[in-house]
Amino acid sequence: MSQTQGGNSKAWWLLSPGVGLYILTFFIPLAMLLVLSFAKFENSVTTIGFFFDNYVKIMTDGITLTIFYRTVQLALMITVSCLVLGYPVAVLMRRSGPRARLWLLFFIVSPLLTSIIVRNVAWVLILGRSGIINDTLIDWGWISTPLPLMYNTFGVVLAVVHVYLSFMVLPLFGALIAIDSSIEEAASSLGASPLRVFLTVTLPLSLPGVTAGCTLVFILSMGIYLTPVIMGGNFVLTLPMLITDSVRNLYNWPVASAMALMLLAAIGAMVLLSARVQKMVGG
Amino acid sequence: MREGYGSPWPHRALVVFSLLVIFFLVAPLAILVIQSFTNESYLSFPPPSFGFRWYREVFTSSDWRDAVGLSVLIAILVTPLSLILGTLAAFGLDRGPMRGRQSLYAVMISPMVLPHIVLGLGIFRIALQLNIEDTLLAFVPAHLTITVPFVVISVGASLQTFNVTLEEAAMSLGASRWRAVWHITLPVIRPGLIAGAIFSFIISFDEFIITFFLATYEQTLPLEMFSTLMFQVKPSIAAISTLTLAVTAALTAMLMFRGQILGGGRIVK
After folding, report:
1. Which residue has the higher pLDDT, B105 or A147?
2. What was the pLDDT predicted at A49?
3. Predicted confidence (pLDDT) per residue in B202-221, tens digit
4. ipTM of predicted complex
5. Contact assignment for A113 to B212 by CB distance below 8 Å
6. A181 CB near a chain B CB, below 8 Å?
7. According to the model, what pLDDT value does residue A83 have?
8. Averaged pLDDT of chain B
């Protein structure tokens, strides 16, 4: 705020309760995970020190790395699906009149505040072995055995897209609404077809929103635990599941910490990449 | 439709596609709500007969009651604390010197960027160290860590539009700083406070993974729903889901009518 340009540095004391909380629940815990990731875990005993055993283990045991790639792959599939479903909606939101836009915005924003587990339950009731789709198709005699609609990648991607689609549409809409429509009108008055206007003007100008939305959805998808467990059962394994299992069932904190840092590294890499792309597309 | 977008056919395709996407977002929840009113002992669609059988079941089951009770208790403790911590921080950021404001703001919202799975793992670790896992002493601060950033953002946004001279005018007329803030500033930034409170409540009420790490015997509602779902899909899960949906829908409606999310209609003008 301009009035407080000089500002009173005493005001920063107001941050202390929040910062105090974060120190206990955020900074110290993260530091602990970092230290633990270099600890040694042998015969259920954790020895603090500076060992690379956990990192070597997750890189060479063949399983962790495979599941890590699988997690990245899944996150990419979710991101692309959100983009494909979300972009047209964002375009329509920009073109609509005030009332229609408000309704569209309502349908896009309200899922953000709807319980994730409730939405997963809804998908189980639809896609499950005796869910609506399988029940109906069997009733009609179209199939005799239930279709595998969940406990596979398809079910996981569908349910996660349902959860994260809003996070894609909002940045897309933000970028699209910021485009000055007179640029498009200029292009079309010079004889460009609507498709050409879209491909050469609208789409390139919306790329900052595409980058922001994709980054957000990718990061969120990398870390999601609940939906893949419910929709994938034990058939779709992801890094967050491995982390949870290592701690809750194997009590192997050092390996779980190393995996958590691996996840953070992947997310950090994505953020850096996204910043680069943003620079290129002029966001 | 505005002019200059060419022939109506691509536009119609766009409308149809968008309606399908919205159907995809809404239909599963609508089906869930309808199914929850089944009178049968199994789930089917459409239900052969309707009734409140499974709602009675949910209300009389001590497991569901305990889980709802704990979730509400945590959210009721978290919401005011989150509002206090977040609002103090937002004021500090707004009134402090320009230098360093950006980095302190980044610190105050930093828990948002961390995947909750990693945050949960870390909080579980320190809770084990302090021997407070599976208690409110762990649940409440853990939830606060993810709700405070939302208050910092929503109250911060309201403070940006607040004109400090109003507060200074009150003080020049003899009001103390506290009195001026209480009677002038807080009422003006009320939409931001309400949004922050509602976000805090909903986020805490719905939080899963961090609580999943911390909880052993205690079960919040999302945890109880999760373990029930993993065990068996019964109509009671549809009933409790519908109840959860009703609570969050009511809070969301409040939020929308306060105009905070939709920018007070500014965005649609």
Report:
1. B105
2. 84
3. 999 999 999 999 998 999 99
4. 0.89
5. no
6. yes
7. 97
8. 87
Specify which of A52-61, A274-283, B35-44, B148-157 reaches the highest per-range mean pLDDT.
B148-157
What pLDDT is recorded for position B196? Answer: 92
Q: Residue B164's closest chain A neighbor by CA?
A: A3
Whether A125 and B1 lie within 8 Å, measured CB to CB = no
Q: Measured between alpha carbons, how far is A167 from A150 in angstroms, rounded to an integer?
A: 24
**CATH number of A51-281: 3.40.190.10, 1.10.3720.10, 3.30.70.2200, 1.20.1070.10?**
1.10.3720.10
**Residue B217: CB partners within 8 Å, gap ≥ 6?**
B134
CB A7 to CB B96 under 8 A?
Answer: yes
Measure in Å the smallest separation between the Cα of A61 and chain B Cα atoms: 22
Domain definitions of chain B by residue range: 61-268
A263 vs B118: CB contact, 8 Å cut-off? yes
CATH architecture assignment, domain B61-268: Orthogonal Bundle (1.10)
Q: How far does A110 lie from chain B, in Å, by closest CA?
A: 7
In this prediction, residue B1 carries a pLDDT of 40
Q: What percent of chain B has pLDDT over 70?
A: 93
B196 contacts in chain A (CB < 8 Å): none
Domain ranges within chain A, ordered by starting residue: 1-37, 51-281
Q: Which residues of chain A have pLDDT under 70?
A: 1-6, 283
With an 8 Å Cβ cutoff, is B209 touching chain A? yes
One-character DSSP codes across chain A: -GGGSS--GGGGGGGHHHHHHHIIIIIHHHHHHHHHHTSEEETTEEE-S---HHHHHHHHSSHHHHHHHHHHHHHHHHHHHHHHHHHHHHHHHHHS-HHHHHHHHHHHHGGGGS-HHHHHHHHHHHHSTTSHHHHHHHHTTS-SS----SSSHHHHHHHHHHHHHHHHHHHHHHHHHTS-HHHHHHHHHTT--HHHHIIIIIHHHHHHHHHHHHHHHHHHHHH--HHHHHHHTTTS--HHHHHHHHHHTT--HHHHHHHHHHHHHHHHHHHHHHHHHHHHHT-
* pLDDT at residue B198 greater than cutoff 80: yes
pLDDT at position B259 is 52
Task: At B163, give phi and psi (nearest 5°).
Answer: -90, 110
Window 172-201 of B: residues touching A by CB (8 A cutoff) are: none
The pLDDT value recorded for residue B258 is: 63
